[in-house]
Write a structure and sequence with these properties.
The protein contains six helices and twelve strands. It is α/β, with parallel strands linked by helices. The two termini are about 30 Å apart. InterPro entries: Metallo-depent_PP-like, YmdB-like.
Length: about 260
């Protein structure tokens, strides 16, 4: 089985990239199931109905999210009504947003039970609304109801992602880091778990991790103390990984990284 995981889809350029590249990739790599992180799709923050339906029409089968999940009010209805999307699992129970959707789901693909889990790292600034992802992951592992288990770990730091991988290797099929928008060159399979620190971003090629550079550069130069997150326009990049699973053992046997630049 070949599973495609697409890195954070960012704005109009991200949707353009998916429309232009996804079908070709599915044919070339004989993809059976496509997952995408969509938390930055709508105006760089969140996901609305129009963009959800558009991405689905391009051939994405399942969606994960992140800390920007709740920036569009429509997401509450999407999470509550749609079976092919999850949000971070480790949201504090007392938070109102925890009542909408779930953070892990089991789907059936070609007679395989695939569990997909979404977790938010402790290093992501989220006003302490998330619980410890290590503890939450241990609770999810008690289910033991899958043939294949893929985790989208939406975390800020490479150290937290690496620690998470080394703690949960050999207990899940794959751990794919998201959130930082720059694909890392450390994709590997170790102790029966496929891993990459960050899958990268599917979005604007010449932004600062997707955003217009001007206000961000001004902040780094010390000329302002904050920036506006506005999506950059122009050429796209498409970042993803292709995970190959042995149909007999259900173990990962190959992980290939993809970066495609619009010409």
């Amino acid at each position: 089985m070949n599973i495609l995981f697409i890195g954070d889809i960012f704005g109009e350029a991200g949707k353009k990239a998916v429309k232009a590249e996804l079908e070709k990739i599915k044919i070339k790599y004989k993809i059976d199931f496509t997952i995408a992180n969509a938390e930055n799709t709508t105006l760089a923050r969140g996901l609305n109905w129009n963009d959800y339906n558009e991405l689905k029409s391009y051939g994405i089968d399942f969606f994960t999210m992140g800390n920007h999940t709740w920036h569009k009010e429509e997401i509450l209805e999407i999470l509550s009504s749609q079976k092919n999307i999850i949000r971070p699992a480790n949201i504090i129970d007392s938070e109102e947003i925890s009542k909408y959707g779930v953070g892990t789901k089991l789907v059936n693909v070609k007679n395989k039970k695939i569990r997909i889990t979404n977790l938010l790292g402790s290093t992501v600034h989220f006003k302490e609304r998330q619980t410890n992802p290590f503890i939450n992951m241990n609770e999810i592992l008690n289910k033991k109801d899958w043939d294949i288990h893929i985790v989208d770990f939406h975390s800020e730091t490479t150290s937290e992602k690496n620690a998470f991988f080394l703690n949960f290797k050999n207990r899940v099929s794959a751990i794919f880091g998201t959130h930082t928008h720059v694909q890392t060159n450390d994709h590997k399979i170790y102790d029966n778990t496929a891993y990459i620190t960050d899958v990268g971003m599917t979005g604007p090629m010449y932004g600062v991790i997707g955003a217009k550079p001007d206000t961000i550069i001004t902040m780094f130069k010390g000329e302002s103390d904050r920036f506006r997150l506005e999506e950059q326009k122009g050429l796209y990049q498409f970042c993803a990984v292709v995970l190959t699973i042995d149909d007999k053992t259900n173990k990962p046997i190959k992980l290939k990284n993809l970066i495609i630049y619009e010409k």
